[in-house]
Amino acid sequence: MYYKVMRKAFAAVLCLTVLSGCAWTRKSDSSDIVIDYPRGRSGNGTPPPFALPGVPLRSDLAPAAAPERKTEAPAPSRPAEYKPAEAAAAPVMPSEAKPAPAPAIMPPAAATAAAPAEDFEFHFSAARRYAAKKQYRSAAAEYAAAGGYLPAGDTRAVHLLERQGAMLLRAGDEPKAQERFRGAIETAKLTGNSGNDLANAHLGLAYCLEKAGKVADALQNYEKALALSSNKTIKARIAETIGGLKKSP
Q1: What is the span of the domain harbouring residue 157?
Q2: Is 212 a domain residue?
Q3: d(CA 166, CA 200)
Q4: What is the DSSP string of 174-241?
Q5: What 8-state DSSP symbol labels residue 248?
Q6: How many CA atoms lie within 13 A of 83 on its CB side?
Q7: For the whole model, what pTM was predicted?
Q8: Could you give the CA distance from residue 225 to residue 201 in angstroms, rounded to a whole number?
Q9: Which helix (DSSP H) or strand (DSSP E) does residue 164 occupy?
């Protein structure tokens, strides 16, 4: 009977021991669980006792994961013909709104007169060269060409007409020579020329009239040439010619 009681007591003690060991094991397992709180704080908000200043925790030694960077979606490509507002072409103004073109700048008078002066000198020099070579018709043509580059009212026109008459007279064309001499006389009246050019025109016309048998008209022009000429030699010859015509029957 005693042994039965002791066995029951031992079994009860054994059961209690086993139960207490299980309870201790559960308590120990729960206390060993470590929660990786941020440095300096535990689950209840207080720093752990082993978090000393300057001593890194194991969790701190692990490299922190870089924050994920958000990449922006690429902007849609613009068409080749796209132009920003600043570079857009200005609207075309209607024709009635366009400003009138600036008036053309006229060249100075001196520049415009230079070309005719050069042309006159060219033909005048050519006429003298032809006359020296006794090419009288060519000389007359060059004198006529030079006259085309003289301004209106220029007194040199009398000289050119007289020279044309003289060249044509030497070439044997007396009718045309008379026309040029008369033209020189009329031009002298318009321009007020009364020098030796006019005297030579009267002298040439007088010679043509004398050869044509018109002595009275010839004497009249010889006398005018004598009055206008300033050359003593020519005046002496004119006077001699006048005297000879007056003596003739």
Answers
A1: 116-247
A2: yes
A3: 9
A4: HHHHHHHHHHHHHHHHHHT--SHHHHHHHHHHHHHHHHTT-HHHHHHHHHHHHHH---HHHHHHHHHH
A5: -
A6: 7
A7: 0.55
A8: 8
A9: helix 156-170
> How many angstroms separate the CA atoms of 145 and 163, rounded?
12
In a domain, 162, yes or no: yes
CA distances from 66 to 39, 77, 143 (A): 18, 31, 106
The pLDDT of residue 12:
61
Q: Which residues, given as ranges, of the chain have pLDDT below 70?
A: 1-114, 249
CA distances from 122 to 105, 127, 129 (A): 29, 9, 11
Tally of CB atoms within 10 A around 101: 6
What pLDDT score was predicted for residue 207?
96
User: Into how many domains does the chain fold?
Assistant: 1
The span from the CA of 62 to the CA of 184, in Å, is: 124
Indicate the DSSP class of residue 150: S
Distance between CA atoms of 74 and 71, rounded to whole angstroms?
9
Diameter of the chain measured on Cα atoms? 220
DSSP character string of 45-111: SS--TT--TT---HHHHSPPPPPPPPPPPPPPPPPTT---TTTSPPPPPPGGGSPPPPPPPPPPHHH
Does a structural domain hold residue 7? no
Instruction: Please report, for the domain that includes residue 138, its CATH number.
Output: 1.25.40.10
Residue 242 lies in a domain: yes
